[in-house]
Amino acid sequence: MTDIIQAKETAPLGYHYTNAGILPNEWTSRPLSSIVEEIAETAGTRKIETVSISAGVGFVNQAEKFGKELSGKQYEKYTVLHRGDFSYNKGNSNLYPQGCIYRLNDRTEAAVPNVFESFRVSDGNPDFYEQLFISGFLNRQLHSRINRGVRDDGLLNLRGKDFYSCEVPCPPLAEQERIAEILMQCDKVIELKQKRIEEEKKKKIWLYRRILTGKTRLKGYETPWVETTIGEQVEYLVGYPFESASFLNDGIKLLRGSNVKRGNLSWGTDITAYWSEDSSISDYLCQEGDIVIAMDGAQVGRSFSRIGNNDLPCYLVQRVARLRSNINGLIVQWIGGSRFARHIDQRKTSTAIPHMTIKDILSYEISIPTDEKEIEHISQLLNQQDQFIDLLEKEMNELCNRKASLAKLLLTGIVRTKV
């Protein structure tokens, strides 16, 4: 809706054109330079925590991020932020191609690289402008001001005066406060959901460490467990070498490493290829319940999934392993744990594209009950926990999407608030 309104040749009744887009008549548009104060305070010889900005996260301790403390003349030039101040990181990323702006909320003070544009809001409600920056409102303007992409140091080629020339909407102060209040309430709901997810993940870790390993037994089971390997428990197969030049745009899906994510499969149009039905390679057709593991890539040892009914039919492609057994519900829990990831980390190649062998998978040592009912009980318990976490994460994503949609409407004045 916002894009449709902004694209109109004439402003709707009650709205007017500004350098920040179409806004309500009661709102104005002003350059950042007129509502913020640039921060010039430097660290000097004071001992202040040095932080950087990580896209999608915010401020992070620089020593933890880069593995070393900063000292000397470079540190002395760092800019000092106080709680409530803002900083713009001109480093581009997949998540924020135009860089990102964060507000220092979790520290009393911190020192940031002086290549960041650091400022504080001097005329207006800082909470409102924090929500505006989070929404990506400045992205289009920043994109038009960035010269020749990324510099040799990895930063966007954007001058400070060009950044501060970006225009922002300026509602009446009371409306700024009300908009910020609404969106901050959304943030609190999202934060509570995130905390619940973290609690359930901790519970899953406990279940993994105690129940899956047999250190804590479920009530009613006393039969012994056995030490074994994945290879002794499964039928395995590595995918077929389909010729990429013969890929089709329709037919039976080809399950490649790029389709295997962390615990799920992705069939996005940009990564999915197809093949015609061929009885000579029917052994490579996946079945519901199969475990598939990507054997190449940066996330090798962490990219796995079980095949669901919605994933079928699909052919297994080379460099993807398939495991099949009558206890796959238990096997997939072992593969999804951090212990399996460490096992692969110790064995994968250190080439530009890390890869593992089928032997690396099959040699992984596990413990399993001898009682089939106990296997089923443990599998169900852990699977239910996974499903519950997935449900919570979907709910959180929906909350984030709703908040983002609401922010677009409120921050541009398409929907007005009562004050």
Automatic annotation (TrEMBL):
CDD domains: RMtype1_S_StySKI-TRD2-CR2_like
GO biological-process terms attached to the record: DNA restriction-modification system
Coiled coil location: 382-409
Domain of life of the source: Bacteria
Pfam families hit by this protein: Methylase_S
Domain called Type I restriction modification DNA specificity: residue spans: 133-199, 263-399
Keywords: Coiled coil, DNA-binding, Endonuclease, Hydrolase, Nuclease, Restriction system
Family (UniProt): Belongs to the type-I restriction system S methylase family.
PANTHER family: TYPE I RESTRICTION ENZYME MJAVIII SPECIFICITY SUBUNIT (PTHR30408:SF12), TYPE-1 RESTRICTION ENZYME ECOKI SPECIFICITY PROTEIN (PTHR30408)
Stated name of the protein: Restriction endonuclease subunit S
